[in-house]
Write a structure and sequence with these properties.
The protein has a single domain, classed as MetI-like (MetI-like fold, Orthogonal Bundle), CATH 1.10.3720. Helix content is about 75%, strand content about 0%. It has 13 helices and no strands. Helix 3 crosses helix 5 and helix 8 packs antiparallel against helix 10. The longest helix is centred in the C-terminal third of the chain and has 37 residues. The chain is elongated. About 0% of the residues have low confidence.
Length: about 300
């Protein structure tokens, strides 16, 4: 027995020989084959983000430049997507319009998730406040997000910031209810009860036991909120209750193109295509993350 070397370095070496670690590229390929939605959604989203960020270099002209002599021109080598009723280059306006949708979508997703997380944690741990807080959330959720956003925008001036605030108020109750459900399900777990019995403070329990288990559903929910916020922003801009017309956005472009629907239908189809592709990319990413972070739950969907 004395001649047998069972030291940890030797065991680790034998284990490495018997079970060699997978190469990094193999792990990436395995993940891509198992969760293709994440890869496709991420690639599409990165393309839209790149087009929006590099719009000043990719665009052919100033998106706000009015040229009456070039009104309603069809797509050509000079104007790839044609021009609108004021002679503005549609290609440049679509590229810049992606900035508004992405800013609104990502901002609302971050704010709604943060506020909803705090409200859900408060309601889940404070039994006396649970009922009143959730009744307020139920009241907000009973109103369709677009109607609530329109009502809030009617009280303010049209701007990107006000759109973000209005859509955040319409979306965060869903996150709060989700977080509350996670908290209530985890409070009955043995390890949480043991932590409470040991005298652990609530902040410690939240950081060690609640948040790690709530990250996965919150990340998935945030992707859906981001996509929903983009659609709501486009609707608000389309009806004139969102971003001012001077700021290019996909909703504004479609709103201005409806007057020329029969003559130049591409004025609506092109920005709608970009909006649809972006929302599709985010939804694919969300579905893929749901499958990757919760394979058991995804199997029953």
């Amino acid at each position: 027995m004395s001649n047998i070397d069972v030291s940890p370095p030797r065991l680790a070496h034998v284990k490495a020989e018997l079970f060699p670690p997978a190469r990094k590229q193999y792990r990436i390929l395995a993940f891509a084959s198992k969760y293709p939605n994440v890869i496709v959604g991420t690639l599409l989203l990165l393309i839209v983000i790149a087009l929006s960020i590099f719009a000043p270099w990719l665009g052919t002209t100033d998106p706000t430049l009015i040229a009456p002599t070039r009104r309603t021109r069809p797509p050509s080598s000079d104007s790839w997507f044609g021009t609108d009723m004021l002679g503005r280059d549609l290609y440049s306006r679509v590229l810049y319009g992606g900035r508004v949708s992405l800013i609104v979508g990502f901002s609302v997703a971050i704010l709604a998730s943060s506020i909803g997380l705090l409200v859900g944690l408060f309601a889940g741990f404070m039994r006396k406040a649970d009922g009143p807080v959730m009744r307020v959330m139920d009241g907000l959720m009973s109103i369709p997000p677009i109607l609530l956003a329109i009502s809030l925008m009617a009280l303010t001036q049209g701007s990107v910031g006000n759109v973000i605030i209005a859509v955040t108020i319409a979306e965060f109750p869903r996150v709060s209810r989700l977080t509350r459900g996670v908290v209530l399900s985890l409070r009955s777990q043995t390890y949480v009860e043991a932590a409470v019995a040991a005298g652990s403070r609530i902040p410690t329990i939240v950081l060690r036991h609640i948040l790690p288990n709530a990250v996965a559903p919150l990340v998935v929910q945030s992707t859906y909120i981001c996509a929903s916020a983009m659609i709501v922003e486009a609707i608000l801009s389309f009806i004139g209750a969102g971003v001012p017309p001077i700021i290019p956005s996909w909703g504004n472009i479609m709103s201005e193109g409806r007057a020329l629907w029969q003559l130049r239908p591409h004025l609506i189809f092109i920005p709608a295509l970009f909006l649809s592709m972006t929302v599709l990319a985010i939804n694919l990413l969300g579905d893929g993350l749901r499958d990757a972070l919760d394979p058991k739950g995804a199997a029953h969907v």
